[in-house]
Amino acid sequence: MSVKLLVVDDDPGHLSALRNILGKLRYRVTGADSGEAAVDLCKEQPFDLILMDVRMAGMSGIEAMRAILAYNPAIPIVIMTAYSGVENAVRALKAGAYDYLTKPLDFDELRITLERALEHTSLRDENRALREALAPEADRLIGQSAPMRRLLELIRTIAPSEATVLISGESGTGKEVAARLIHDHSKRRNGPFVAVNCGALSESLLESELFGHEKGAFTGADKRRDGRFLAANKGSLFLDEIGEMPLPMQVKLLRVIQERELQRVGGDQTISVDARILAATNRDPREEIKAGRFRQDLFYRLNVVSLVLPPLRERREDIALLAMHFLKLYAGRNAKTVKGFTPAAMDRLLKYPWPGNVRELENAVERAVVLLMGNYVSERELPPNILESGREDAAPGQSFRNMTLEEIERRIILETLEEAGGNKSEAARRLGINRKTLLAKLPPSPSR
Predict the structure, then answer these.
(1) 198-212, pLDDT tens digit by residue?
(2) What is the distance between the terminal CA atoms of the chain, rounded to a whole angstrom?
(3) Mind listing the pLDDT tens digit for each residue in 392-418?
(4) What is the pLDDT of residues 259-274, one digit of tens each?
(5) Domain count of the chain?
(6) Are 65 and 98 a contacting pair, CB within 8 Å?
(7) CB-based contacts of 351: which residues, under 8 Å, 6+ apart?
């Protein structure tokens, strides 16, 4: 498959000459006559490599490069500059360019530079910058977009207080992660953080789980047990999916929050408790109140401070950062050396709507790492729904849906072998494995 190359130059003659020359080198060349046009093209379609003039009218090459890398940091960009513009080239390298070439171009040097850039598809500098920007802990909210900066600033503001917090957001946005972050930045950080999924338990089990029970309170209660409230004493209690809690339990919860005391199921002793309440829901509490499924007085008690976690589709600037975070995490867990994503794979991640939010992205990257046999995650390792989303030209029979990992792995090997013209050594090189491993993974030849 030929490489998609974007050439950017506001000199029509030079642009035309480059398109002709690079086309003969079997690149699929697209031209752009301005930095603005280049940025727009990169958001419309994936490119494997960009060759861009540094000095252009309007948006300069460096400005266009920064905008492109902010959108898709996996695209390698080679800058062209005049001999007198070497200072600009140095600035471009510092801003993230892969390399620079001086005009008039030496075409052997151009060819070698482009080939070398393609061998380092994931832009080592960009990936290093992404990794350094990640939080050191694996369970932190990751993001540099405006919505996430506002959210993190609000968390830092409210964490030291004793206020109850109601966290809302779609499934997979990281509500428990936000709750843990509040706890870890609060005065209760040395106390316990206890989480309960209110939607996973029946009313009777939930009452016992929260408040505890006395011996003999019900069948199977062979000893006294403290509940999650007492387990969270001097710390924080996270009540996930609070909107799933039955109305009778809502009444009992409200009383405990108000009075700061409880009774175990089957007991009459009143016990004081000191736990900060952090609650979460993926439903709209006000709609639930209108429907009669949630008590208004409990909502007001919980909603002293409200946090709304934005869905991933509303903070696309964070997708690359999150993807690199999960890539590093699961590469380590699977003892694999993974350097990054190909530009086309990152483009797919950036354009997918992510209905399952961060949790879905994490699962997609974990799956890609498990399937990966080379050093860079390509489109082949991404889940079928991501590849098929918004794509009308998907060839029939190419979906990986309902296939086992072994079957997917075998198909990837066979497709790579076909692309390499049947050359097993070349196919092994492209996959990042040795020839012996490739032969072992190939399906057996039919017996004659």
Answers:
(1) 988 888 789 888 998
(2) 33
(3) 444 434 445 555 666 666 777 777 777
(4) 999 998 888 889 999 9
(5) 3
(6) no
(7) 389, 390
255: tokens are 């009383």
**Cα-trace Rg, the chain:** 28
The model scores a pTM over 0.85: no
Identity of the amino acid at 90: V
The pair of structure tokens assigned to 435 is 């020839």
| Cα 86 to Cα 101: distance, rounded to the nearest angstrom | 9
Q: How many CB atoms lie within 10 A of CB 183?
A: 22
Long-range contacts of 76-79 (CB under 8 A, 24+ apart): 76/49, 76/50, 76/117, 76/118, 76/120, 76/121, 76/123, 76/343, 77/49, 77/50, 77/51, 77/52, 78/49, 78/50, 78/51, 78/52, 78/113, 78/114, 78/117, 79/52, 79/53, 79/54
Amino acid 41 reads L
Residue 193 shares a structural domain with residue 216: yes
386 & 422 share domain: yes
Contact 206, 245 (CB under 8 A): yes
The residues near 283 (Cβ < 8 Å, ≥ 6 apart) are 168, 243
Q: Are 92 and 65 in contact (CB under 8 A)?
A: yes
- Let me know whether 332 and 289 are in one domain: no
Neighbours of 309 (CB within 10 A): 25
